[in-house]
Amino acid sequence: MKYVLTLLLMLAVTRIALANTSYTVRVPENPDSIHVSGSFKINSGTIGMYITRSPQLAGGQADLVRNLVVTSAGNPVPCEYTDGGDWSLGGVREGQRIDVEYDILTEHEKYSWGPGIDEVAYRQDDGLFFTGFSLFIVGGHESKEPIDVRLELPPGWHASTPWATDASDNNLYHPRDMMDLLRNCMCMGTHLEESVEIGDFTVVLAIGGDFKARKQMFVDAMTPLLPAYVELFGGMPNASRYLAVINPGSRSDGGAFPGSYSMLISGEVNKTSSAVWGHGIAHELMHFWNGHTLIPASVSDEEWFKEGFTDYLTLIQLSRSGLDRPEITYRKLENLARRYFIAKRLMGGSESMRVAGAQKHQNRFLVYGGGALVAFALDVRIREASGNEAGLDQLMSAMYDEFAARDKTYTFEDIVRIAGEVRGKDQSDFFRRFVDGTEYLDVAPYFDAIGMQMTTFVDEFYLSVREGATVQQSAMARGIFGR
Ligand SMILES: [Zn+2]
Question: What would the pLDDT profile of 18-41 be if each residue is shown by its tens digit?
Fold first, then answer.
């Protein structure tokens, strides 16, 4: 009896905790706008949205909020927009419960956004895409308590979210905490939703438009990769259930969140164009490890590692799995070299790769292209020193082991140290010159070392296999590309 009582009390406490923060999203039949109601406790006199930079909207997503009304226990609370997505409340105290009601105009695609609209919100013929950041006005992001989110949709619509539904209510979701709510994406509409089991993962696919008929191609692209990534890092990422949103868009782009990723694909989806869409999917999946499980202490300083290394590892994993033919892999390597050359020599960037990460979308060529070339050069350096026994794979699994598996963040110095350990020789000079410094990394000798030839004329780059490559050189190339 005592146990039953304790259990009942626990349930009661859990129930109260669950209701601490709650939101209801109401979507009408033709959603020019949607309505959001929220109830939460405030920890300051300010509420707001975590906004994404847009050149046309100073307040980002908050500029599309209309009719905001704030009350507390039924009484109006004075509320005034300040800036940067914040509203200042009058006459409130810390810990006070407030209720908010507001509309959001679904016209995000009229504007441009720093990381791309795939990481904000958009409307399609068959539904709506939203990130939590673009949907919810909150009192802060620190709350670790579970949240109730109810989605009320038009008849025939369904929602795809990274969160499991309530056992007794299909429209009710329970994000783990505030960050889980905000740093994720969801889809509401008549899109295709299907759950697929891949190895130890459950991937919830949400596919819109004409791409519904291409579902199997997306599944086939992910199937060899997820187990290969587990092997590469030597462990699982933080979650094993992910939402994958794939929609047609005017330009191809993608973004990964801790429990979901978003892809927009421009043009056809077929075997030939998989060089773009397949690469995008593989890149975003890799971020579940490198970015959301292996996490830098300073995100902007280590974008070269988060984005550049992810892109290089994506390239070699696609080659090893056979998803990319050798010609595609070579062209991707040529593209990396070209991007880096353009950033360093033609665009006159004078910042280091690390500093450039603060504006990673503007400095895409240097951060992604340069970061990936650093990864390649390091791969070759480690292989040369270890007689091809180790490579970048060992660097990544050592990083996973020391940081991801122990829930610790890593620093630049940690990467330098572990690279030295894996190579068996101090690597700080290499990182100081090309990553922390601004020297130009010439990759031709690294291609020579693996029996390949990079021929260059200004911004033209041609990669080919060298005739007469030695057995050791070819073995290193096989170690990297798997053939
Ligand atoms: Zn990325």
Answer: 458 999 999 999 899 999 999 999
Do residues 400 and 235 lie in contact, with contact meaning Cβ atoms separated by under 8 Å? yes
Residue 225 tokens read as 């990769």
Distance in Å, CA 255 to ligand 1 centroid: 7
For the chain, the 3-state helix, strand and coil shares in percent, each to the nearest 5, are 40, 25, 35
Asked whether the predicted pLDDT for residue 173 surpasses 90, the reply is yes
Per-residue pLDDT tens digits for 72-99: 999 999 999 999 999 999 999 999 999 9
- Residue range 400-433, pLDDT digits in tens: 999 999 999 999 999 999 999 999 999 999 999 9
- Give the residue from 476, 481, 418 showing the smallest Cα distance to 446: 476
* Mean pLDDT, residues 106-131 taken together: 96
- Which tokens sit at 34? 């949607």
Cross-strand bridge partners of residue 194: 205
Report the distance separating Cα 472 and Cα 326, nearest Å: 19
Q: Are strands 147-152 and 21-26 parallel, antiparallel or unpaired?
A: parallel
Which of 131, 248, 241 has its CA nearest to residue 195? 241
SS3 state at 50: coil
Confidence of residue 165 (pLDDT cuts 50, 70, 90): confident
**Is the pLDDT reported for residue 4 higher than 60?**
no
CB contact at 8 A, 323 and 283: no
Output the pLDDT for position 205.
96
Q: Ligand 1 center to residue 70 CA distance, Å?
A: 37
Q: Confirm if 100 and 125 have CB atoms less than 8 A apart.
A: no
Q: Ligand 1 centre from 113 Cα, in Å?
A: 16
436: three-class secondary structure by DSSP: coil
How far apart CA 310 and CA 204 sit, in angstroms, is: 22
Would you state the pLDDT for residue 19?
Answer: 54
Q: Which of 401, 411, 162, 183 is nearest to 295 (CA)?
A: 411
Cα 336 to averaged position of ligand 1 atoms, centre (Å):
15
Cα-to-centroid distance, 372 and ligand 1 (Å): 12
| Residue 377 backbone dihedrals phi, psi, to 5 degrees | -60, -40
What sign does the dihedral 290-291-292-294 (CA atoms) show?
positive
Residue 287 Cα to ligand 1 midpoint, Å, equals: 7
| Distance from residue 352's CA to the centre of ligand 1 (Å) | 19
